[in-house]
Amino acid sequence: MTMPIAHQQVAEYAFLYELYEDGYFPDHVVDKGRAILLRLCEQIEAEQPKDLAALYTLTDAATDEFNLLEAEFEAAGSEIETVAREAIGEDFWFVATSYGFTDADSERLIANREW
After folding, report:
1. What digits encode the pLDDT tens for the residues 86-108?
2. d(CA 20, CA 103)
3. How far apart are CA 24 and CA 83, in angstroms?
4. Taking the model in full, what pTM does it have?
5. What's the 3-state SS for 40-91?
6. Residue 1 has pLDDT above 80, yes or no
7. Which of 72, 74, 58 lies closest to 112, judged by CA?
8. What angle do CA 59, 62, 64 make, to 5 degrees?
9. Which residues contact 5 (CB under 8 A, 6 or more apart)?
10. Judging by beta carbons within 10 Å of its beta carbon (0-12, 13-18, 19+), is residue 21 exposed, middle or buried?
């Protein structure tokens, strides 16, 4: 069961907007990426990580989910390429900074990516 996002700015944010706007990325797969990011927000709100190490544990797990999603992009004739990589990275950064982790390293947030 999912919890509604309590953080208003996050709840209203259009995750992966650039991918939805680009026909190269199939919406049904982008929806799964958006769900990964929303689950990350739910986890941050539920667990309230106290430091960057705890945050990175959560972002590593979410990045692993995106790694698995790459195969679905490929099966749909797409891939996580430069545009997608940047959009996903920007959304991870948005999540981190929205929850007060303004000193998070944007590359470290998605360090274990395979895309």
Report:
1. 999 999 999 999 999 999 999 99
2. 29
3. 10
4. 0.95
5. HHHHHHHHCCCCHHHHHHHHHHHHHHHHHHHHHHHHCCCCCCHHHHHHHHHH
6. no
7. 58
8. 110
9. 11, 38, 41, 42, 45
10. exposed
Instruction: Indicate the pLDDT class of residue 4, thresholds 50, 70 and 90.
Output: confident
Cα separation, 87 vs 77, in Å, equals 19
Residue tagged 């998605």 (tokens):
110
Is a pLDDT exceeding 80 seen at residue 2? no
Amino acid letter for position 10: V
Measure the CA angle with vertex 68, ends 58 and 52; round to 5°.
Answer: 15
